[in-house]
Each structure stands twice: as C-alpha cells, then as structure tokens.
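User: Please fill in residues for this 149-position structure.
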C-alpha cells in the first residue's frame, strides 16, 4: 500500500509549512509497520535561519515528522467506526530519543514506524529515521487520540 500526499492530507490535519511527510511507501498487512518518506529540500523555511551557511534540519522537526508518520499509521489502523468520530491524534510523549547523523537538504528521510500497543486512546510507537540506510534518529513516541468539535 502506497499513500500519496493527497491521501496523507486526508489523514492528517497538517498543512504547509508544517506537513512534514510526503509519502507512505508501504504498510504491512496487519498495519503495524509503515515506511514513510520525507524529501528534505533547500527551500523549506527552517533553512533560512537554521545555520544558513550550513543548513541542517532541526532535530525537533525530525521528531515532528516522525510523530506525523506515526499519527498517519495510527489513522490507517482505525476502524470505520473510529474514523466516523471527529478526533485528532496529538503528540503525547517521547522517550529514548537519540540523534546519530545530521540531515541536510537533498536527503531523503525514511521513517520506520512500528505500532507497539494502545490503551485508553493512547498509542505507543517505536520509530527510526534513516538517510541512505544510515540511522539519523530513533525514538519511542506516544500519540493520544482526542475528540474535537
């Protein structure tokens, strides 16, 4: 299953300049693992101020993109009944974050999101971000599903 940007915008409420994932490359059969793509481009707004002479994607934005990838997986996991309810996934927590490599314009970030468990409308995920097979970041994330009006 590949999910393009138009379908991602149906899953997530984020929009430019804060929609930070471009494509869901694949989701396994039981929807417990997804691989998600983010193309890092020089024209993104953070690069005008985050080390203009040596543009580096801020770690906090890598984490946010990772959280969006996990939220997209969470949305894909929902039942039709759950989808009918007005709710959003909010970033609820993060643990064991490690940064291993800088991310620069021209890189393609690949996020691997793994569903771990859920309880009381909170989902736990393990995620990694790689560029060219090299680990950039790893983290454990929590997404909370909350009703909205």
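Assistant: Residues filled in for all 149 positions:
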């Amino acid at each position: 299953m590949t999910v393009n940007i138009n379908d991602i915008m149906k899953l997530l409420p984020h929009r430019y300049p804060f929609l930070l994932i471009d494509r869901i490359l694949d989701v396994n059969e039981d929807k417990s693992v997804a691989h998600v793509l983010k193309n890092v481009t020089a024209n993104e707004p953070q690069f005008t101020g985050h080390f203009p002479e040596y543009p580096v994607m801020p770690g906090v934005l890598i984490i946010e993109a990772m959280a969006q990838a996990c939220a997209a997986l969470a949305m894909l996991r929902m039942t039709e009944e759950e989808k009918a309810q007005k709710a959003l996934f909010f970033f609820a927590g993060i643990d064991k974050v490690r940064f291993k490599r800088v991310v620069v314009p021209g890189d393609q970030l690949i996020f691997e999101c793994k569903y771990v468990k859920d309880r009381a409308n909170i989902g736990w995920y393990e995620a990694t971000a790689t560029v060219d097979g090299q680990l950039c970041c790893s983290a454990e994330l929590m997404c909370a599903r909350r009703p909205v009006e």
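For context: The CA atoms of residues 37 and 110 lie 5 Å apart.
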